[in-house]
């Protein structure tokens, strides 16, 4: 059996030519048809230079396996999710490297209804079939057609906001030369057709797989100033930036300051609680006090879930949650097949700003003051097991609440922390939050950092 290092817990990712080749992509297509089904299948791709070849290989594999294919071309991951549901397809595959290094690429997969595929629900079977080379060829080769439901997708995105409530605002948008540009333009055209008084300043808007302005990953602090500076330079009311396949959306206030993801989760939770009474909101456990306070004040029910898109989506379906959010800028919507979207969040935020009449900085200020947080800190450690053991020994005995749902969470009267191993990288991730005490936050961040990096 061939070793395939590109298969991860929820998707396929790796260095093109080494971990992920056209032959492997072809095998994935054939195995997908065998494992998930040979009905109609949707395939899309991002702007990376390697994506067209990998998409063509996946399509050929699907057709060899007997599947008919709809090729929706250059798009975002959420458009594959939407198209899979829209066309009532058996599944969908998105060729994307998202925010990973320029020589990487990957494949995200869903089954009917845009439900995620994980190791336990088909990905392992696909891996084993490709690794063994056991790839059946169908008696009848599938057909392929080029089609996109983008107009219907745009209508779905716009349905989340009251367009009549939107006020004249200037918005700076940074597509990072990824896939977001054309899709955003389709949304902007429809907004203009409906007389919505928004104006846009576009930055790095054209898709370019060579990424002349760097890999689109606004989560990295060093990548944020370009959007923040553009907000200030153009006098914009808000800034938006996306990663390569725009399934994550990042926001900047009118001063150019980055708005941390946990506060966006709180704001979106508040937005949905004005639309549906007693709604359930799912959140991850890394930073949660602000979200829980907002949901309680809005009359909703906050439900915690382990981190990760498949887990969040599963929990949302289980409790019929209207919205789910992760501090990493993934936002999930019940009325978008319980899937994540990078276009819905900014539209809802513009609606919130329009209705409140307040700038984004003012909307966020109270949350930052009431529940300051550290932001996620990553530690690459020689002995992570020993490091976590030191933290447990120091803090668990005195904690008011200890939760091991996702890593180690310890809560005290005025502060809490979450410490967890990354699902995708060999690092330990730490988040700390307090109840309105920045000095305590700094003290505990220093104490935990010292304990984690202690040697000898």
Describe the structure.
This protein is α/β, with parallel strands linked by helices and 456 residues long. The protein has 3 domains: 12-148, Alpha-D-Glucose-1,6-Bisphosphate, Chain A, domain 3; 152-370, Alpha-D-Glucose-1,6-Bisphosphate, Chain A, domain 3 (3-Layer(aba) Sandwich), CATH 3.40.120; 377-453, Alpha-D-phosphohexomutase, C-terminal domain (TATA-Binding Protein, 2-Layer Sandwich). The chain contains 14 helices and 21 strands. The chain has helices at 22-35, 51-64, 77-86, 123-132, 150-158, 180-193, 225-234, 261-273, 289-297, 309-319, 344-356, 360-370, 384-395, 438-453, and strands spanning 12-15, 41-45, 69-74, 91-95, 104-111, 115-116, 144-146, 169-174, 198-203, 238-242, 249-252, 280-283, 301-304, 323-325, 331-333, 339-340, 377-379, 401-403, 408-411, 415-421, 428-434. The strands form 4 sheets. Strands 1, 2, 3, 4, 5, 6 and 7 form a 7-stranded mixed β-sheet that branches. A 5-stranded mixed β-sheet has the order 13-12-14-15-16, sandwiched between helices. Helix 1 (22-35) packs parallel to helix 2 and helix 13 packs across helix 14. The mean pLDDT is 96.
Distance between the termini: 42 Å
Could you tell me the CATH topology label of the largest domain: Alpha-D-Glucose-1,6-Bisphosphate, Chain A, domain 3
pLDDT averaged residue by residue: 96
Q: What's the name of the CATH homologous superfamily of the largest domain? A: Alpha-D-Glucose-1,6-Bisphosphate, subunit A, domain 3
Rg from alpha-carbon coordinates: 22 Å
CATH architecture of the largest domain: 3-Layer(aba) Sandwich
How much of the sequence lies in strands comes to 15-25%
Helix content: 25-40%
Q: What oligomeric state do these chains adopt?
A: single chain
Number of helical regions: 14
Largest sheet: 7 strands, mixed
Number of strands: 21
Taking pLDDT < 50 over at least 5 consecutive residues as the criterion, the unreliable ranges are none
State the shape.
globular
Number of domains: 3
Query: Given the helix and strand composition, which structural class is it?
Result: alpha/beta
Write down the CATH class of the largest domain.
Alpha Beta
């Amino acid at each position: 059996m061939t070793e395939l290092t590109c298969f991860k817990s929820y998707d396929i990712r790796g260095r093109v030519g080494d971990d992920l080749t056209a032959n492997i992509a072809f095998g994935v297509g054939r195995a997908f048809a065998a494992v998930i089904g040979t009905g109609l299948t949707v395939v899309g791709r991002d702007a990376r230079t390697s994506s067209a070849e990998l998409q063509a290989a996946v399509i050929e594999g699907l057709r060899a396996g007997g599947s008919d294919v709809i090729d929706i071309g250059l798009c975002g991951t959420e458009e594959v999710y939407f198209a899979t549901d829209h066309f009532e397809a058996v599944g969908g595959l998105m060729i994307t490297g998202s925010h990973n290094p320029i020589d990487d690429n990957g494949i995200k997969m869903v089954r009917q209804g845009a439900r995620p595929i994980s190791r336990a629900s088909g990905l392992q079977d696909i891996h084993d079939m490709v690794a063994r080379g056991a790839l059946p060829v169908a008696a009848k080769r599938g057909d392929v057609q080029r089609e996109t439901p983008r107009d219907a997708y745009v209508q779905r995105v716009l349905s989340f906001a009251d367009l009549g409530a939107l006020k004249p605002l200037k918005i700076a948008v940074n597509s990072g030369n990824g896939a977001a540009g054309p899709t955003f333009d389709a949304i902007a055209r429809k907004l203009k057709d409906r007389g919505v008084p928004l104006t846009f300043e576009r930055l790095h808007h054209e898709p370019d797989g060579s990424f002349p302005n760097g890999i689109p990953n606004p989560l990295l602090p060093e990548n944020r100033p370009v959007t923040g500076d553009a907000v200030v330079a153009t006098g914009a009311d808000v800034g938006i930036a996306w990663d390569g396949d725009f399934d994550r959306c990042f926001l900047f206030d009118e001063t150019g300051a980055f708005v941390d993801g946990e506060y966006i989760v709180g704001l979106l939770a508040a937005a949905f609680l004005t639309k549906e009474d007693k709604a359930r909101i799912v959140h991850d456990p890394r930073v949660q006090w602000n979200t829980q306070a907002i949901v309680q004040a809005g009359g909703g029910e906050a439900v915690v879930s382990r981190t990760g898109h498949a887990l969040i989506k599963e929990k949302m379906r289980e409790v019929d949650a209207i919205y789910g959010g992760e501090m990493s800028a993934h936002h999930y919507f019940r009325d978008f097949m319980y899937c994540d979207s990078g276009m819905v969040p900014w539209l809802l935020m513009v609606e919130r700003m329009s209705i409140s009449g307040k700038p984004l900085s003012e909307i966020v200020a109270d949350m930052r003051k009431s529940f300051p947080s550290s932001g996620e800190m990553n530690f690459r450690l020689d002995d992570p097991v020993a490091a976590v053991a030191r933290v447990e020994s120091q803090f668990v005995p005195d904690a008011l609440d200890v939760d091991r749902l996702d890593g180690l969470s310890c809560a005290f009267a005025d502060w809490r922390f979450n410490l967890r191993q990354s699902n995708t990288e060999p690092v330990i991730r730490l988040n700390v939050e307090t109840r309105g005490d920045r000095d305590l936050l700094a003290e505990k961040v220093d104490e935990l950092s010292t304990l984690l990096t202690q040697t000898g």
